[in-house]
Design a protein that fits this description.
Helices cover 32% and strands 14% of the residues. By secondary structure, it is an alpha/beta fold. Bound molecules: NADP nicotinamide-adenine-dinucleotide phosphate. InterPro entries: NAD(P)-bd_dom_sf, SDR_enzymes, SDR_fam.
């Protein structure tokens, strides 16, 4: 991996681990990391913080681009910011759903569109959108049950958004990928009580997930644009298999 990297959602979890991993790579020139706060967190000297990038705000794309050097070319953009608000059939939550759909499936369009229009992405650039196996309709079985409408379906919507962006950007040579990073031991899963599944579900640390995602991104290119991948496999089995398609290694059983 070389060049300049942008990580949207670099403060915690997977985004923070990717930030540190890329910042420690001598081939990487600079890591740009976003925070929704108005202050810059302390971190590695090779990390430039972009502040007040809130995916719930309609001007999120302009806010991001206005803080980047105008001549900056990005080799890779990873959108990993996400929110999981728990719901059950008895407790659907309108506001949480709006927050999840906005974060997962609306904001990425405006971020990517602004980056392209400002000239920060060009031939050979890669855009990686953080999806989830929970957004796969194919992989949802009776065993895992229903609920969590906003979280899971907003990732399904993101998968279509990524496919559409890939079609728009293919003529420019910009590749767009959708990834399930793996089941991770982060604030996200803890906040909805899924830490009780961490051991049985094979949850990995965000540092481990960042390493396998970075290896996947290294190989990812325009030949795979528009595809939806699980670099660790859908059940953390350590292989790269498409989450959607005929090539599934095993019938997936989500831990929730
Ligand atoms: N954890 C898992 O098992 C798992 C499984 C499959 C897919 N994923 C996906 O992987 C990605 C990373 O998950 P994670 O577990 O690392 O999450 P996490 O630990 O909860 O961290 C979430 C990150 O997103 C940022 N964020 C949330 N809402 C935002 C907003 N409105 N605007 C800007 N930034 C916002 C947070 O910033 P603040 O610090 O400001 O809150 C934080 O940096 C997500 O897209 C998630 O859906 C996770």
């Amino acid at each position: 991996m070389s060049g300049n990297i942008l990580i949207v959602g670099a403060t915690r979890g997977l985004g923070a681990s990717l930030r540190d991993l890329y910042a420690s790579n001598p081939s990487v020139i600079n890591v740009f990391g976003t925070t929704r706060s108005d202050s810059k967190p302390d971190s590695h000297p090779k990390v430039s913080w972009i502040t007040e990038v809130d995916l719930l705000k309609s001007n999120v794309g302009q806010k991001l681009v206005s803080q980047l050097p105008s001549s900056l070319k990005l080799s890779t953009v990873i959108v990993t910011a996400g929110y999981f608000g728990f719901e059950s059939f008895d407790t659907p939550d309108w506001d949480k759903q709006v927050q999840m759909y906005t974060t997962s499936a609306i904001a990425p369009v405006f971020l990517v569109q602004q980056l392209v229009k400002a000239g920060h992405l060009n031939e050979g650039s890669k855009v990686i959108l953080g999806s989830s196996e929970s957004g796969s309709i194919t992989l949802r079985h009776e065993k895992e049950g229903g609920g969590n409408y906003g979280h899971h379906a907003s990732k399904t919507a993101l998968n279509m958004v990524g496919k559409l962006l890939s079609l728009d950007l293919k003529p420019m040579g910009i590749a767009v990928g959708l990834v399930h990073p793996g089941f991770m031991r982060t604030d996200m899963t803890r906040s909805v009580g899924f830490d009780k599944y961490w051991d049985d579900g094979g949850a990995v640390t965000p540092e481990e997930a960042a390493k396998s995602l970075a290896s996947f991104i290294e190989e990812f290119d325009i030949n795979k644009t528009g595809e939806y991948w699980a670099p660790r496999g859908p059940r953390d089995i350590g292989t790269a298999e498409p989450v959607l398609g005929a090539n599934l290694p095993t019938p997936l059983q989500l831990p929730w």
